[in-house]
Amino acid sequence: MKVTKVCQCRECALGMTFCPQCGRDVCNRLIAKRLSRKHEKPTHCVDCLRKPALTIEYDHPVLGKTRCVPWVGEIDADCYPVDDLGELYRPGIRICGHNDCVSLQHIVLVKENAPLVMGGLEEQPTEKV
Asked: Is residue 119 predicted with pLDDT exceeding 60?
């Protein structure tokens, strides 16, 4: 292990090394602990070891107990899921509040050419006298 700089936890003098996948700093004390436990990838950082969530269960203030299905793939600048061609995957408004949710129960489709509604009534043409 090549020591690059002083450890951020400041409790050990072992220093830090780079994660081989993303290049982030990983504490050498943590690597030594993983090696003693015979970890599969001891030199990787926490984010590279993390597995993506398949579902998220939580108590929504309005919907109650709900289950979201996060998108595993590319997202646009607003965190909406996009397909391989860069087009929105399942466009619409997410009522759960998670822009990357692809659960059909949480997506409300928005009509693009909806009539203009003013005060609950459709706009009516008027004749000027």
From this structure: no
> Does a structural domain hold residue 78?
yes
Return the percent helix, strand and coil in the chain, to nearest 5: 10, 25, 65
Residue 67 and residue 80 in one domain: yes
- Write out pLDDT tens, residues 14-41: 678 888 877 888 888 888 888 999 988 8
pTM of the model: 0.49
CA angle 30, 34, 37 (to 5 degrees): 145
Domain that holds residue 66: 51-115
